[in-house]
TrEMBL record:
GO MF annotation: an example: mannosyltransferase activity
GO cellular component, one term: membrane
The protein's name: Protein O-mannosyl-transferase 2
Keyword Transport: no
Topology versus the membrane: Multi-pass membrane protein
Pfam families found in the cross-reference section: PMT
Organism for this UniProt entry: Mionectes macconnelli (McConnell's flycatcher)
Family: Belongs to the glycosyltransferase 39 family.
One of the GO BP terms on file: protein O-linked glycosylation
Involved pathway(s): Protein modification; protein glycosylation
Name of the gene: Pomt2
Record domain ArnT-like N-terminal: where: 1-229
TM region positions: 66-86, 92-109, 116-134, 149-182, 202-227
Length: 258
C-alpha cells in the first residue's frame, strides 16, 4: 500500500514537482535518487496498490529477489550491523552469529526490505547509529584518537539520517543521549580528570552529537526545497509568497507584499 505513496514521492523528486508530506525528506529523496540512477524517468503514476509496472524501470527502487538494490541493500545491511553490535557488546561469537541468523530468517524484515518503503532506510540509520555508538564506547580508553573521532562523528551523521527519514528516529537520539549523559557523568566522577579535559569531552560531544546532526538535518531541507522548484500538489500548504517561487504556479514571479 505505501509503495503508492513513497514511489510517487520519489517520482516527484525526479520531476522536481513540489509536494507536502508529514515525514522529513531524506528517505524519499534517497528513493528518488535510486530511481534516477537506475534509469527510472518518474512517469509511473502509482495510482493504486497492485498496478503493474510494465515497461517502467523499477529495479533501482524495489529490491527483487537477489537484486539487492537500494531498499533491499539497506535491509541486508541490518544483518552485519546487528552482528557487529552484539559482538562488540558481548565479545561472544555465538551470540553475534545467533543475532545475525535471527535477522536473516526474519520474515518481517525481509518483507519490509523488498518494497519502496521508508522502513528499511529508517532501520539502516537506526542500527548504524547504535553500532557507531557502541564502537565509540569501545574507544573510551583512547579518547580524541582518530578512531574515537570517526565513530563519534559517524554517530552524529546516523542520528541525522534516522531523524531525516522519520521522526521515529527520535528514539535512537534518546538512546544515544542517555548513553552520552551516562558517559559524561562517569567522566565527571573521575577525580584524575581535570575540569579542562572534561570540558573538551563535553565540547566534542556537543559538536558531533548536536551541532553536526542539526546541520545535516537542516541541509536535507535545503536540498529538498532546491530540488522541488516546480508547482505541484503541495503548493496549497504554503504561503502565497512561497508559491510565487514555484515554476508553473499561478503566482510565479508575482510581487507579493510581506
Amino acid at each position: 500500500w505505501d509503495e503508492t505513496h513513497f514511489g510517487k514521492m520519489g517520482s516527484y523528486y525526479i520531476n522536481r514537482t513540489f509536494f507536502f508530506d508529514v515525514h522529513p525528506p531524506l528517505g524519499k529523496m534517497l528513493i528518488g535518487l535510486a530511481g534516477y540512477l537506475s534509469g527510472y524517468d518518474g512517469t509511473f503514476p502509482f495510482q493504486k496498490p497492485g498496478d503493474r509496472y510494465e515497461q517502467h524501470n523499477y529495479m533501482g527502487m524495489r529490491g527483487v529477489r537477489l537484486c539487492r538494490l537500494f531498499c533491499a541493500f539497506l535491509g541486508s545491511c541490518l544483518v552485519p550491523f546487528a552482528y557487529l553490535t552484539v559482538l562488540e557488546l558481548s565479545k561472544s561469537l555465538p551470540a553475534a552469529l545467533l543475532t545475525a541468523f535471527i535477522l536473516i530468517f526474519d520474515t518481517g524484515c525481509i518483507t519490509l526490505s523488498q518494497y519502496i518503503l521508508l522502513d528499511p532506510i529508517l532501520m539502516f540509520f537506526l542500527m548504524a547509529a547504535v553500532l557507531s555508538m557502541v564502537k565509540c564506547n569501545s574507544c573510551a580508553d583512547r579518547p580524541f584518537s582518530a578512531s574515537w573521532w570517526f565513530w563519534l562523528s559517524l554517530t552524529g551523521v546516523n542520528l541525522a539520517g534516522a531523524m531525516g527519514v522519520k521522526f521515529v528516529g527520535l528514539f535512537v537520539v534518546l538512546l544515544v543521549g542517555l548513553n552520552t549523559v551516562y558517559d559524561l557523568w562517569d567522566l565527571l566522577g573521575n577525580l584524575s580528570l581535570s575540569l579542562v579535559m572534561f570540558g573538551k569531552h563535553l565540547l566534542a560531544r556537543v559538536l558531533c552529537l548536536i551541532v553536526l546532526p542539526l546541520a545535516l538535518y537542516t541541509a536535507m531541507f535545503a536540498v529538498h526545497f532546491a530540488v522541488l522548484n516546480k508547482s505541484g500538489p503541495g503548493d496549497g500548504f504554503f504561503s502565497s509568497a512561497f508559491q510565487s517561487q514555484l515554476i508553473g504556479n499561478n503566482l510565479h514571479n508575482v510581487s507579493i507584499p510581506e
